[in-house]
Design brief:
Elements: E1 9-13, E2 17-19, E3 25-31, E4 34-42, H1 47-64, E5 70-74, E6 90-95, H2 109-119, E7 122-125, H3 128-134, E8 141-143, H4 150-154, H5 164-167, E9 173-177, H6 186-195, E10 200-204, E11 221-225, H7 232-236, E12 241-244, H8 259-265, E13 270-272, H9 276-283, E14 289-290, H10 294-306, H11 309-320, H12 325-340, E15 353-357
Parallel strand pairs: 1-4, 1-15, 2-4, 5-6, 5-15, 6-7, 7-8, 9-10, 9-12, 10-11, 12-13, 13-14
Antiparallel strand pairs: 3-4
Length: 359
């Protein structure tokens, strides 16, 4: 969306924040050139009232901002509840995950996705396995595996000053950044920490949808909380191994972790469980070690710590030169422009407005 906003207005709609005793309103802030829209709603509202309030607030926003000729870009089918009455030039369904498999997914999510697929002009998937699962559900569907901002994460290779909350942690360090939820293999993390008490495991990210009490607690496991995107290279730079300790369950069946190429750009060896979109292509090309059991995971991490880092980063850099977010956006933009054209009036998407309801 940041790249989209270079040429057109972008309004990125977040999920609402609920507080007691307030009037429905929209908070509008800028994230670079992207307009971030956050509905604020009274927690006393029923679900139907919340949908009605979001519909009214966004319709008013569109009037105030003179949004007439636009693309509706969906990250979640549930946003249809308050946007199905719109008449956009095109509808993009950016399907990043199989959301129905996540813990706490709405019961109506599958039904909403069926409706969104009927409305969509274009469907994008966040990985190859998700594309293969959904490719027969739409005539214009395309896979876009995760890309990476190489320059941003490459800063990790040059970091000399560590963040204060990590600097006090011993070495060697195995690290992870991302949401800590039902997709984590907590037993694996606990097992690795138990097997190698001299290693330190650093976990960055918010704990979501699982009870923090369920997290493994050992002296060598360190939960440092959520960090800003700009901070991540400083932390990764101080790791000896970057981990993808995902469980193999319904919630991870179709994930394509963006952090895989980000870890590689940071110059770190990567050890992952056998997530399909990590095994293919990263595991198959020898860019990531794959292990699912405590013993094999420990062994893979041990090997990663003593491998030739110059050779590894050379192979990683050769792979990363094939991808970039600029290249990904250029390909997506071409597909969106094609979806916006009509036989009567062929127009570029430039200078139109996008409104992206977020998940």
């Amino acid at each position: 969306m940041t790249r989209c906003a270079r040429d057109r207005r972008v309004y990125f709609v977040e999920e609402p924040i609920y507080r007691s005793g307030i009037e429905p309103s929209l908070e509008v802030t800028a994230a670079g050139a992207v307009n971030v829209i956050v509905p604020h709603l009274p927690e006393e509202m029923s679900a139907d009232q919340a949908i009605g309030a979001q519909k009214a607030l966004l319709d008013r926003l569109m009037d105030d901002q003179n949004i007439r000729d636009f693309v509706a870009w969906y990250y979640t089918p549930m946003a249809l509840d308050f946007t199905s009455h719109w008449s956009p030039r095109a509808v993009v369904y950016d399907c990043m995950d199989e959301l129905s498999a996540f813990k706490g997914a709405p019961a109506t999510l599958k039904q909403h996705e069926t409706e969104l697929l009927k409305k969509a002009s274009l469907v994008l998937t966040g990985g190859q396995s998700l594309y293969e699962a959904k490719r027969h559900s739409h005539a214009n569907i395309h896979p876009f595996p995760s890309s990476v901002d190489v320059a941003h994460f490459g800063r990790a290779r040059r970091m000399t000053i560590e963040p204060s909350d990590q600097a006090m942690i011993g070495r060697p360090r195995l690290g992870f950044f991302g949401v800590i939820d039902e997709r984590m293999d907590l037993a694996l993390i606990d097992g690795v920490a138990s097997a190698r008490p001299d290693w330190h495991i650093v976990m960055l990210g918010p704990v979501v949808k699982i009870d923090p009490v369920a997290l493994p607690r050992r002296p060598n496991i360190h939960y440092l909380g959520a960090k800003q995107y700009q901070e991540l290279p400083g932390y990764v730079g101080g790791w000896d191994v970057a981990m993808l300790p995902f469980a193999r369950n319904d919630a991870t069946r179709f994930i394509s972790p963006t952090k895989t190429p980000e870890y590689m750009a940071a110059g770190k060896p990567v050890v992952s469980t056998s997530i399909r979109d990590v095994v293919r292509p990263y595991g198959q090309q020898g860019l990531v070690r794959i292990a699912d059991q405590v013993e094999t995971f420990v062994s893979a991490c041990s090997e990663a710590m003593v491998e030739d880092s110059v050779e590894r980063t050379a192979r990683a850099d050769a792979f990363l030169r094939q991808t970039s977010w600029d290249g990904t956006w250029n390909r997506i933009q071409s597909l969106v422009e094609r979806a916006c054209r009509t036989p009567e009036k062929r127009r570029s998407l430039r200078a139109t407005a996008d409104l992206a309801p977020a998940s």
